[in-house]
Amino acid sequence: MMFSTKAEYGVRVMAHLAGRAGAGPVALGAIATAEGLPLAYLEHLVARLRRAGLVASRRGAHGGYRLARPAEAISMAEVVEALEGDIAPIECISAGADGDLVCARESSGDGTCPTKLLWTRVRGSIVATLREMTLSDLIQPVVAAENTVGSRRVTGRRLASSRAQSMPEHRRAS
Length: 174
Prior knowledge:
Elements: H1 5-19, H2 28-35, H3 39-51, E1 55-58, E2 64-67, H4 76-84, E3 93-95, E4 101-103, H5 104-107, H6 116-132, H7 135-139, H8 141-145, E5 146-149, E6 152-155, H9 156-166, H10 169-172
Antiparallel strand pairs: 1-2, 3-4, 5-6
Helix pairs in contact: 1-3, 1-4, 4-6
């Protein structure tokens, strides 16, 4: 599954704003230049983020955008859903009005979908990860340097050796 450039660029905009929290509004042109992203496209993305209540804007000579809430109060699920809409690994699985996942085959009367369990679990894992991460997780250098391998938390040099140990024997030599 691949997220579109809406999510990729939008997350970069949000991380940029989070990294400058407290410094006042940031002009969208400055973000576009710093991140190497097209300004016209960012204008559409920040409109979505503003409608979702994730960014606030200020007009004028010293205007620009800022986070509407502290970075630690913004989940990555909120950001991605504001940009992409409902998160679904394949088109035939979507959230119904009651929040339950619905398979297009089942709703059209074609019977039980044999792959619904797989895709609902994939979606659940993605959504859980996005809900657990906040925008502040992306901007804290200590957190960014840490990685989780299995159920152990490892940092720095230990990461490479942990990955090598978890790799099958025939792959370690290369």
